[in-house]
Amino acid sequence: MFGKIKEKLSRLAEKLSTLIETREISEKELADILEEFKLDLIESDVAYDVAERIAELLKQKLAGSRIPRTENVQVIVRKAFADILRSMLMDPPNISWEIRRKCEKGEPYILMVMGVNGVGKTTSIAKLASYLKEQGISVLLVAADTFRAGAQEQLVKHAEAIGVPVIRAKYGSDPAAVAFDAIQHAKKRKYCVIIIDTAGRMHTDQDLMAELKKISRVIKPDFKLLVIDALTGNDAVEQARVFNEQVGVDGFFLTKTDADAKGGSGISVSLTTGRPIVFVGTGQRYSDIVMFSKEWLIEKIVGSNA
Ligand SMILES: Nc1nc2c(ncn2[C@@H]2O[C@H](COP(=O)(O)OP(=O)(O)OP(=O)(O)O)[C@@H](O)[C@H]2O)c(=O)[nH]1
Ligand SMILES: [Mg+2]
Q1: pLDDT tens-digit profile of 20-52?
Q2: How far is the CA of 282 from the centre of ligand 1 (A)?
Q3: Nearest Cα to 115, choosing from 230, 243, 7?
Q4: Per the CB 3.0–4.6 Å rule, which of 30, 57, 169, 306 could disulfide with 302?
Q5: Are 222 and 111 in contact (CB under 8 A)?
Q6: Whose CA is nearest to atom 26 of ligand 1?
Q7: From CA 267, how far away is CA 121, in angstroms rounded?
Q8: Domains within the chain, CATH numbers bracketed
Q9: Which residues contact 18 (CB under 8 A, 6 or more apart)?
Q10: Which of 217, 220, 161, 157 is nearest to 194 (CA)?
Q11: What are the φ and ψ backbone dihedral angles of 135, each rounded to 5 degrees?
Q12: Neighbours of 168 (CB within 10 A)
């Protein structure tokens, strides 16, 4: 992931480097070069206004005299880009720590997972459950997707494979009631975290969005995790915006990054909503999960030491 942005950033530095060998870069030349870079970012699925903000900040940082001829332009450009990402992005909360803190009070931490059909909700829940279990945190899964045929069995299969308990429900039953009952069970049995799998739904489907709002109202989650497929491209921002407006989003699980060379949609959903990316899915195995941090992303795009 991010290979494309990385490559375009390198191209930008090359162009500036060639120009600067002979003379100082004019304001117009810099503006033109950055306009091209802005389009490169948009092609890499960075949302238009986010790309515009990045280009504007780069302009301020790279304006003519700010690039001394004696310096390595690649280093300067990378450092400028890294600093911009540092200032724009946010680090996620430490979920394991938050779970432990609530668990110490004798209450289960309620994590609701939502998103559009097929983005990777159920797989990501399995990864997350496996990750938390490895840290000695007791996990209970809830199959609150009572809608899609096979959804219950799919989560049960994952739960068995990683060795965590799962509560399943009857198809057609009310997911809010299923989740509510499961939480009562988790309280009695002193589980530390309860992860609720919800049915996939298009953000444009008013009825299903209303259903999700109801689930959220009934169970009052500690964390509402929106799963975003990195391959979605530009529509990812729209999904993030609508789910955030209607249900509220506390953070993102960005999936399928192993299959996406661009990476711009992840940056964009976070910057557009002001919510952090918390986890990143990097493959189909349970261990293919990364805890997101700003420095992890910066390292991926500009390499270390920036
Ligand atoms: N390559 C890759 N595939 C992934 C990743 N995460 C999920 N998938 C795949 O995406 C497909 C859909 O995953 P599910 O977990 O069933 O998606 P879902 O959102 O629960 O789907 P619905 O419940 O039908 O809405 C599966 O084939 C997963 O293996 C990832 O990080 N990388
Ligand atoms: Mg599912």
Answers
A1: 877 778 888 899 999 999 999 999 999 999 999
A2: 11
A3: 243
A4: 306
A5: yes
A6: 120
A7: 19
A8: 3-88 (1.20.120.140), 95-302 (3.40.50.300)
A9: none
A10: 220
A11: -90, 10
A12: 19
In angstroms, rounded to a whole number, what is the distance separating the alpha carbons of residues 215 and 237? 23
Looking up tokens 């805890």, which residue turns up?
291
Q: Got the DSSP string for 44-78?
A: TT--HHHHHHHHHHHHHHH-GGGS-TTS-HHHHHH
Tell me the ligand closest to 200's alpha carbon: 1
- Which of these, 269, 212, 287, lies nearest to 49 by C-alpha position? 269
Structure confidence by residue, pLDDT tens digits, 193-251: 999 999 999 999 999 999 999 999 999 999 999 999 999 988 999 999 999 999 999 99
Q: What is the largest CA-CA distance in the chain?
A: 74
Nearest residue by C-alpha to atom 11 in ligand 1: 120
Give the atom of ligand 1 at the shortest distance from the alpha carbon of 151: 23
Of 164, 77, 171, nearest in space to 127 by CA: 164
Tokens of 203: 């953000």
Q: Token pair of 71, please?
A: 């310096």
Helical pair 294-302 and 3-20, crossing angle rounded to 10 deg: 60
**CB 37, CB 58: distance < 8 Å:** yes
CB 115 within 8 A of CB 228: yes
Is the CB of residue 3 below 6 angstroms from any atom belonging to ligand 1? no
Radius of gyration of the chain (CA): 22
Name the packing angle between helices 235-246 and 206-219 (round to 10°): 50
- 């332009």: which residue's tokens? 73
The amino acid at residue 9 is L
Which helix (H) or strand (E) segment holds residue 184: the answer is helix 175-189
Say how far apart CA 78 and CA 74 lie, in whole Å: 6
Alpha helices (H) in 95-150, listed in sequence order = 95-104, 121-134
Q: Token digits for 111?
A: 């994590």
